[in-house]
Design goal:
Layout lengths: L2 H14 L3 H20 L5 E5 L6 E10 L10 E3 H6 L9 E6 L6 H28 L5 E9 L3 E7 L2 E6 L14 E12 L2 E7 L3 H11 L1 H4 L3 E9 L3 E8 L6 H6 L4 H9 L4 E6 L4 H9 L6 E5 L4 E5 L5 H5 L4 H10 L2 E5 L1 H23 L3 H9 L5 H6 L2 H5 L6 H23 L6 H5 L5 H9 L5 H5 L3 H7 L5 H11 L1 H6 L2
Parallel strand pairs: 2-3, 7-9, 11-12, 14-15
Antiparallel strand pairs: 1-2, 2-4, 5-6, 5-8, 6-7, 8-9, 10-11, 13-14
């Protein structure tokens, strides 16, 4: 290795302000390419350059495999041929065969320079994107750089560009080059042409960030926005609560004569925003979220995260909203499935579910339908409730004695164990996914069943992809999980 090339490495690393180690790695990659041109493109070549003297050592690595396992020519050598060549080899070993190092000519030096420059450009691009990952979930102001039918390219400053897809734009958005735009940074993709920043003007996160800007109490966390849902450009709902009992959260978000909510609405093309008072009780929250429709009764299924809402016939259209907009936004706001129906329909559905639960217990517990009917009548809906509810509570049922209660509990435990064994026989998540910060055991198994078995698989998902797999996740938590899974990417490129 010539001293001239070492000077080139130092010069490039100094002028670009990056670690010399990155330049040396690019240089070694260029030497590997030059060596493969001489010996063979399919050879496994390793070149190491001494950081002090500049001297290089070149070796060929050959994996010794059994004759029947020989697959990769150039990288593997079967044991029979190795012994025939007199090589002291054993199956499973890796031979390191010294080779003559190539010398750098003028063309090779130029190729090395281009390789180093490319590495530097990649490092700079990753550094810029890494700085923006810290702004994930924030509102950014950008300048329109280019407009096409499918997307708008935004200049974010600091040599960074963002993509605003048509699907992430409001129906009324019409931009021209040079326009200033506010958009919500929701994702970073790593593609062949480099990392891409993706922004949106339709996601609930943008609505939340606008209120954070317009309402000081939200920015100071005196008022919290617990959830938001949107029909972009048309209507939206946000649920708010106060951490200071002296402050009315709805009034604060509306502002004097509606000035605050109007400012948010104007930014979103006239989108109407309903402000709902948050309540930890899902029954009360659904009443707040469905206003102004008057609800007659509510049936909550906490296991399925579903709520049946009964409203009078004359209130039905108002509760559902145009094209189902009101109930859809309320459902997205809560993260529950909301079913709006008349009182008669609720009653009929309840009867149907009772029949379904009776059939379920009769099959899983291998009991007569009258026993299963008693369990349903007393409010039992799952095997876990039968298996683990207090014995005294079950003995309080008039038709049950100790023998029946004991038999029911044993059969329920056996049925639960059988279902768990079936679940364990399916795809299992890798250790890194299960141990990842923010991950739960149940979520890890659900991801594995969908083919997402490790952190790398999760890192390659977009937020929408993850929400399709697990609809009960909030958009913010889904984004946080994906970002956590991508951390090794940024660490590896620092």
């Amino acid at each position: 290795m010539s001293k001239e090339v070492l000077l080139l490495v130092k010069s490039l690393s100094d002028t670009k302000g990056i670690d010399q180690e990155l330049a040396f790695q690019a240089l070694e990659a260029a030497l590997v390419m030059a060596t493969k041109k001489r010996y063979g493109a399919d050879w496994n070549i390793i070149v190491s350059v001494d950081r002090e003297s500049g001297e290089s050592t070149t070796t060929r690595h050959l994996s010794i495999v059994a004759d029947e396992d020989y697959l990769i020519e150039g990288e593997q050598l079967n044991i029979t041929e190795a012994l025939a060549q007199g090589l002291p080899a054993k199956v499973g070993e890796v031979l390191e065969i010294p080779l003559e190092s190539v010398t750098f000519g003028r063309i090779d030096a130029q190729a090395a320079k281009q390789s180093i420059l490319q590495k530097i450009r990649e490092a700079e691009r990753y550094e810029v994107v890494r700085s923006f990952t810290e702004k994930m979930g924030q509102l950014l102001t950008a300048v329109v750089k280019k407009v096409t039918r499918e997307w708008v390219l935004l200049d974010l400053g600091f040599n960074a560009e963002g993509m605003l897809l048509r699907s992430e734009m409001l129906p009324t958005d019409a931009f021209r080059a040079g326009d200033r735009v506010r958009a919500y940074l929701y994702d970073v993709h790593f593609e062949a042409r480099g990392p891409q920043l993706f922004l949106s003007r339709t996601r609930p996160g943008m609505l939340i960030e606008l209120f954070r800007i317009e309402v000081p109490e939200v920015g100071e966390e005196v008022i919290e926005i617990m959830a938001a849902s949107r029909d972009p450009g048309v209507r939206a709902k946000i649920a708010v609560k106060t951490n200071d009992g002296r402050i009315d959260p709805i009034g604060a978000c509306i502002g004097m004569r509606g000035s605050r909510v109007q400012a948010v609405s104007n930014e979103l093309g006239g989108e109407r925003v309903d402000i709902v008072l948050w309540d930890d009780n899902p029954a009360q929250l659904v009443i707040n979220a469905m206003a102004p429709a008057e609800i007659q009764s509510i049936v909550v299924d906490e296991n399925l995260h579903s709520i049946d809402i009964a409203v009078n016939q004359d209130q039905l259209s108002q509760a559902i909203g145009r094209n189902g907009q009101n109930v859809r936004l309320a459902s997205e706001l809560m993260g529950w499935t909301l079913n709006v129906m008349t009182p008669e329909e609720v009653s009929a559905k309840s009867e149907g579910e009772q029949v379904s639960h009776i059939e379920f217990f009769a099959e899983k517990l291998n009991v007569e339908e009258d026993i299963a009917g008693i369990l349903v009548r007393e409010g039992f809906t799952t095997l876990e409730e039968v298996a683990y509810v207090a014995i005294a509570d079950m003995l309080a049922i008039e038709e049950f004695d100790e023998d029946i209660v004991e038999a029911l509990r044993e059969r329920a435990i056996e049925a639960i164990a059988s279902e768990e064994a079936l679940r364990q026989s399916r795809a299992k998540p890798a250790a890194d996914l299960r141990a990842m910060e923010g991950m739960t055991e149940d979520l890890a198994y659900r991801l594995a069943e969908a083919g997402i078995v490790n952190m790398e698989d999760l890192a390659e998902l977009a937020v929408d992809d993850l929400l399709e797999i697990e609809a009960n996740l909030s958009e913010e938590r889904a984004g946080a999980l994906i970002l956590k899974a991508r951390e090794p990417w940024f660490i590896g490129n620092q």
